[in-house]
Amino acid sequence: MNIILIGFLAVLVLLTGISAAGKITTLETTPLVNSTAWECAPVWSEDGTGLFYASNESGNFDILRVDADGTNKTRITNDSADEFPSFSWSTWENGSIIDRIVYISQSVGSDIWIIDADGTNESKLTDSGYNIDPALVCVPLPQISGMQPSGTIDNNMPAVSSNFSCSYGNISAVNLSVDGIDVTSNANITDSNVSYSPIEPLDCGDHNFTVRVESDLYTVGYGYRFFTIAYITNQKPTCVSNSTPTISANISCSYGSIATVTISVDGVNVTSNATIADSYISYTPTEPLLNGTHNATVCANSTHGINDSMTWVFYVNSYYPPGGGGGAGGGGYSCAPKIVFASNRSGNFDIWMMNMDGTGLMQLTNSPSNETHPVAVDSKTVYVSDESGSRDLWSMDLNGSNKQQLTSSAVDECMPAWSPIGGIVYTQRSCGGDDYNLFAMNTDGTGKTRLTNNPLDELSPVFSQSPYQLKVAYAIENDDSDIWTTSFKETDNKVRIWHLEGWYVLVCREVYGNEVCLELAKNGTMVDQEIVAINESFSMSCSGDTIITGTLHNINRSDDSAFEVSLVNVTQYSGGGGVLFSDATKILTNAPIRLCAMRGDLNSDSEITSTDAAIVLEIAVGSRPCDPETLAIADVSGDGRVSSLDALMILQNCTTSLCRK
Questions:
Q1: Taken in order 344, 348, 349, 351, is the CA torsion positive or negative?
Q2: Dihedral class, residue 163 (left if φ above 0, else alpha if ψ from -120 to 50, else beta)
Q3: Measuring CA to CA, how many Å separate 515 from each of 67, 320, 407?
Q4: Helix, strand, or coil here: 511?
Q5: Rounded mean pLDDT of 337-366?
Q6: What distances in angstroms separate CA 369 from CA 381, 385, 482, one per listed residue?
Q7: Phi, psi angles (nearest 5°) of residue 502
Q8: DSSP 8-state symbol, 188
Q9: Residue 173: DSSP 8-state
Q10: Whether the Cβ atoms of residue 235 and residue 296 lie closer than 8 Å to each other
């Protein structure tokens, strides 16, 4: 009897290990907006400092905003139609960041609108069919590279050229402008290059050219380049302590040659006393120059009659050394924002795409089934389809190709959204009921993990994009609907966010060669930042409340821009100087949090059922193959093999409350 009891207890102990391989744990779950009204459709602001949502507190549904802590409620819309926010979007315009909201407005039908976050500049984007579920997606732009000429050149007839490529669609049009004049008709255009030679020589001075490449999928790439044509370069001096400095400049001309050259100092022509060579002119004053500001001018005339002149100022003072200079660079966009949405304008619901102003409409799916709830995840569009009977999650490329089914259970999976945990968060109905819970999974459909588990419905999940927190907002429906949030904490030694004492977190935002940018934050707000090199110590603090010290030990980078930053000897002190923890080690990364499959869940439906036990028995008798990944899931007992014991443990689990459905 004792042997039987001990064996049964051992089974129960092992049974409690049938769960997601824990890399995250719940920190707290709190109500954010909780009233007698119906609040739903939460949407985080892009910086994570606020949340937009829909509420019927005034009768119909309007869009409101609260801070991330639930305070400072503000009304954004106040119309007779019902309005539900779908996503927020920020742009840089005229030196300012403009926050916008894309939303659904439903009166007689359903259309997509856009509005500034302050409630102004409202604009309708759709006018046909019943349109729902808009989401932001960024598609690659045509790329411009190898633009020439650049910098300073001495040729008045330069070859203007640029390479281009397109990974999203095909090139449909190429345009080239020089100094604001369209010269496309005189340009030579191939599949990947555009080139142009001026018909008339360009004057000396500053010039620019622009390359515009358009794809057949309504994307446009731009390239800009500035260049200067000058015969006179490398002028000296700028600031000297010598009262008889050598005043000089280089001279060159590849369009013809230099015919004449002159030099003046303080308005006096001194060419007769200058030294002139094929590519150089210099002059040394015969009398000392007074302390103070002086100017020099060099003029050059080419054999084609084109003139160039350069005037510069220099300073003479024996008490001050020469000064220095600097430069600047720039960059451009590599992707374009667009809106993907569901519409029944073609009969059933399909996924469509359009530009942010409603133009450039494209149909991405076209099947007898209904496709809804599109969302951008990495370089894919994830959406819901009822093609297999129940609602499942699918993915496809941004242009609608390479469709792949991610879930295939008998219950509904819907409302997908981007997630820093795994990649996709969604809501799933429980077997045999209408209870919806939140789940997360990897972008390839593996690692399905339950995030919430209560008898109420959790719907419309949306993760904050803040780099300082893993927080999901969602609607809980019972007698009414309220907005709740749940925060998570990583438990691995390698994390995106390191949770410290006192609600502080430490993250690595960027890697620059042998240096990294570390940021200390509290309650979702950065409080300190430091650039640290390998083997260098750091010290970060927040108004004397806490101090974090440590050393950057190593940096590892992969080809896909992911990094791992190793920190050692990390110690946290309280404001009073007490040690909260010491000599800790952690790896900070920007890689996605990959989820592991649930032990015992052989059919990947995030439930432990008798179906899983039947699959284990098939593996045990050799009628079903078992690769290493399947073995790790099926070997519930942990003895390194799959046997009837594993099936028994799964069946026992189905009859207890240890794993709720």
A1: negative
A2: beta
A3: 34, 35, 41
A4: strand
A5: 93
A6: 17, 7, 32
A7: 70, 30
A8: E
A9: E
A10: yes
Residue carrying the six token digits 């609608």: 400
For the chain, the residue count is: 661
- For residue 134, is the peptide bond before it cis, meaning its omega torsion is within 30 degrees of 0? no
The pTM assigned to this predicted structure is: 0.74
Beta strands at 220-229 and 151-153: parallel, antiparallel or unpaired? parallel
Superfamily of domain 21-140+334-490: TolB, C-terminal domain (2.120.10.30)
| Residues 562 and 592: beta-carbon distance below 8 Å | no
CB 24, CB 472: distance < 8 Å: no
Q: Which residues are bridge partners to 215 per DSSP?
A: 171
Query: What whole-number distance in Å separates Cα of residue 576 and Cα of residue 560?
Result: 43
Query: Running DSSP on this structure, what letter comes out for residue 179?
Result: T
Give the Cα separation of 199 and 183 in Å (integer). Answer: 10
Q: What is the C-alpha separation between 553 and 567, in angstroms, rounded?
A: 6
Best CA proximity match to 339, nearest among 307, 361, 371, 320: 361
Task: Write down the CATH number for the domain with range 143-229.
Answer: 2.60.40.1220
Task: List, edge to edge, every strand of the sheet that includes 110-116.
Answer: 82-93, 96-106, 110-116, 123-124
Could you write out the DSSP letters of every residue in 538-571?
Answer: EEEESTTSEEEEEEEEEEEE-TTS-EEEEEEEEE
65 touches 83 (CB < 8 A): no
Q: Quick: pLDDT tens for 479-536.
A: 889 999 999 999 889 999 999 998 899 999 989 889 999 999 998 889 999 999 999 9
Confidence category of residue 632, pLDDT binned at 50, 70, 90? confident
**C-alpha–C-alpha distance, residues 322 and 425, integer Å:** 61
Phi (first) and psi of residue 591, to 5 degrees: -70, 150
Instruction: Give helix then strand counts, H and E, for the chain.
Output: 4, 51
pLDDT tens column, 294-305: 999 999 999 999
Could you tell me the CATH superfamily of domain 597-654? Answer: Dockerin domain (1.10.1330.10)
Residue 7 backbone phi and psi in degrees, to 5: -65, -40
pLDDT in tens, 51-109: 999 999 989 999 999 999 999 999 999 999 999 999 998 887 777 888 999 999 998 89
Cα 253 from Cα 250, distance rounded (Å): 10
Report CA 618 to chain centroid distance, whole Å.
44
Is residue 499 within 8 A of residue 505, CB to CB? The reply is yes
Q: How far is it, in rounded angstroms, from Cα 576 to Cα 218?
A: 60
Q: 79 is written with which tokens? A: 């119309």
Pairing of strands 436-442, 449-450: antiparallel
3-state class of 525 per DSSP? strand
Three-class SS state of 284:
coil
Q: CATH class for domain 232-316?
A: mainly beta
As a whole number of angstroms, the distance between CA 445 and CA 399 comes to: 20
Q: Which residues contact 416 (CB under 8 A, 6 or more apart)?
A: 373, 375, 377, 382, 383, 384, 393, 424, 425, 426
**Residue 396: how many other CB atoms lie within 10 Å:** 20
Q: Report how far residue 652's alpha carbon sits from residue 119's, in angstroms, rounded to the nearest whole number.
A: 56
- Report which residue type is found at 452: T
Run of H or E residues at 3 = helix 2-15
- Are the C-beta atoms of 215 and 142 separated by less than 8 Å? yes
Specify the 3-state DSSP secondary structure of 156.
coil
